[in-house]
């Protein structure tokens, strides 16, 4: 069939083009300094080296920033999973007066321009005396990942038949037991998928780190660290690409892990 | 009661700032007021009046809308075309394409920006080497810059459209398409008369989601044009609000821009919710 051949060819070409920037990032990170500065650019390297990675990880506090980013992301993931689970149970299992209003608010919350909100948030964080702390990042990112997490968890909780909980209640289980021993394990896969989204939001955050961490160098996270390698006169592209690679790898791994759930999860977030 | 922790986080970190955003926007709030040197002064709609009479605000608003519209259109065309390609291609080609797309989707906005900047670097960038443009600066002309930034954004956002639409196409029952074929419909006719109408709700959701994302574009512009380009020529609303507040310490005015943005997005969101209701969803 000719149509199929054309489709295959297009798919392949687009796949190459799409993957190319990522390939280029990893390749440049592995190139020795001489090759990066050479005006004769080649799409391969004969002398792969880890010198860029070593320079990045040992200098300019990058390892510290990596750890900070991981800590913040981890805290956000754990907290948002627990809180979103409870909230999702509330909006799916109980009928209360403002249920629909609450749900619409979660939806609207996802549309709010986050960057504009950093203006008042800056003062809130300042008044809480949290400027320059990682705690500020955790709190703020938690707030911004929750609406989507709840919206997504809703679908997973709703998918568990209510009869299961009723049966447990009849057998004499209390509310807490039903919640943590029965419902929680059943929605665990959904929780994992939701957590990945929270992780990515937190890990990719640029603006909060840029705004709330002003002077405390030790509390910077990765995105700002990346900008350190931009120099007014000469950018250290090898360093930038190595740092970018290090920042991309964890997200890439997570994406591959959840790729099957991605579509159904988003579908669930949008549809169910 | 289960909503208590949610309320505890969202109240102070989301609801209150939103309220404060509105509040700040009606006050004269600048560096002097932040440090307590001068009392805050109530301006009413003063900040808004200043914005509406400011030529720069209008030009930024217009270029934000134009840029976002171009991004939405490009993302949708690329995403939809590739969804069709995925549907027609063999499994191995489909897997290859979706893996590559997954990579672009997963890459953080900021690392995507740095890589594209490197590719388009004036001296050491691959693009100039291949095209033989020695030392051509892609970040000098306003619209060329928007083009490069736009390409980065589309690269990052088309996978969502592609994957979602492809999933939607797969969800159409085979019998429907067979019935159309039996009735003598051509492939093209089936696509426009059967597939598209059935995908309508999904397309609406994807369109509106894209509008919301592209209208709020921040990181790519901020990083790639170093905060808005030469003399701020590549500023979009979100960057403008941020720079006004934190760059020029005009917090009140910045907040007013934020409110304008929020209102525009709210309008889009309401359309979104209506679209959700139309597809027969129950909240």
Automatic annotation (TrEMBL), chain A:
Gene3D superfamilies in UniProt: MetI-like
Major location (coarse): membrane
Keyword Electron transport found: no
GO CC entries: plasma membrane
TM ranges: 62-90, 102-124, 136-157, 178-200, 237-258
Record keyword Transmembrane helix present: yes
Keywords: Cell membrane, Membrane, Transmembrane, Transmembrane helix, Transport
PROSITE patterns: ABC_TM1 (PS50928)
Residues of the ABC transmembrane type-1 domain: 66-258
Signal peptide: none
One record GO biological process: transmembrane transport
Subcellular localization(s) per the UniProt record: Cell membrane
Pfam families: BPD_transp_1
InterPro entries: BP-dep_ABC_trans_perm, MetI-like, MetI-like_sf
Topology class, membrane: Multi-pass membrane protein
Similarity section: Belongs to the binding-protein-dependent transport system permease family.
Record PANTHER family: INNER MEMBRANE ABC TRANSPORTER PERMEASE PROTEIN YCJP, MALTOSE TRANSPORT SYSTEM PERMEASE-RELATED
Name the UniProt record assigns to this protein: N,N'-diacetylchitobiose transport system permease protein
């Amino acid at each position: 069939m000719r149509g199929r051949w054309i489709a295959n060819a297009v798919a392949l070409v687009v796949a190459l083009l799409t993957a190319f920037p990522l390939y280029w990032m990893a390749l440049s990170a592995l190139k020795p300094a001489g090759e990066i500065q050479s005006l004769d650019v080649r799409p391969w390297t004969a002398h792969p080296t880890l010198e860029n990675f070593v320079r990045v990880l040992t200098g300019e506090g990058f390892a510290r920033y990596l750890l900070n980013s991981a800590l913040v992301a981890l805290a956000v993931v754990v907290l948002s999973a627990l809180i979103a689970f409870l909230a999702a149970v509330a909006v799916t299992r109980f009928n209360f007066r403002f249920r629909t209003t609450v749900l619409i608010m979660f939806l609207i919350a996802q549309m709010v321009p986050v960057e504009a909100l950093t203006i008042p948030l800056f003062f809130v964080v300042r008044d809480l005396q949290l400027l320059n702390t990682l705690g500020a990042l955790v709190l703020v990112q938690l707030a911004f990942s929750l609406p989507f997490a709840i919206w997504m968890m809703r679908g997973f909780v709703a998918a568990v038949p209510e009869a299961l909980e009723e049966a447990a209640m009849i057998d004499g289980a209390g509310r807490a037991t039903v919640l943590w021993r029965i419902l929680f394990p059943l929605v665990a896969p959904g929780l994992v998928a939701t957590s990945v989204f929270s992780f990515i939001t937190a890990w990719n955050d640029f603006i909060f780190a840029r705004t709330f961490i002003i002077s405390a160098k030790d509390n910077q996270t990765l995105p700002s660290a990346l900008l350190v390698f931009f120099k007014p006169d000469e950018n250290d592209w090898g360093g930038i690409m190595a740092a970018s690679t290090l920042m991309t790898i964890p997200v890439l791994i997570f994406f591959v892990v959840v790729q099957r759930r991605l579509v159904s999860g988003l579908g669930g977030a949008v549809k169910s | 009661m289960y909503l208590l922790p949610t309320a505890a986080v969202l109240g102070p970190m989301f609801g209150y700032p939103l309220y404060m955003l509105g509040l700040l926007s009606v006050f004269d709030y600048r560096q002097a007021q932040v440090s307590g040197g001068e009392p805050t002064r109530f301006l009413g709609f003063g900040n808004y009046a200043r914005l509406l009479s400011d030529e720069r605000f209008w030009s930024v608003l217009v270029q934000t809308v134009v840029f976002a519209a171009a991004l939405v259109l490009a993302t949708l065309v690329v995403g939809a075309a590739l969804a069709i390609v995925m549907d027609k291609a063999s499994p191995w080609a489909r897997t290859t394409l979706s893996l590559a797309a997954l990579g672009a989707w997963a890459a953080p906005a900021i690392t995507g920006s740095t890589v594209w900047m490197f590719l388009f670097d004036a001296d050491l960038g691959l693009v100039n080497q291949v095209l033989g443009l020695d030392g051509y600066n892609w970040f000098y002309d306003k619209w060329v810059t928007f083009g490069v930034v736009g390409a980065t954004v589309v690269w990052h956002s088309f996978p969502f459209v592609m994957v979602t639409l492809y999933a939607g196409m797969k969800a159409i029952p085979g019998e429907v398409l067979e019935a159309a074929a039996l009735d003598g419909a051509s492939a093209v006719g089936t696509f426009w008369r059967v597939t598209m109408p059935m995908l309508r709700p999904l397309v609406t959701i994807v369109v509106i989601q894209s509008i919301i994302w592209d209208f709020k574009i921040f990181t790519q512009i901020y990083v790639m044009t170093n905060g808005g380009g030469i003399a701020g020529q590549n500023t979009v609303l979100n960057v403008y609000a941020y720079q006004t507040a934190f760059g020029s310490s005009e917090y009140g005015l910045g907040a007013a821009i934020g409110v304008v943005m929020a209102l525009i997005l709210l309008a889009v969101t309401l359309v979104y919710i209506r679209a959700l209701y139309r597809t027969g969803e129950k909240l």
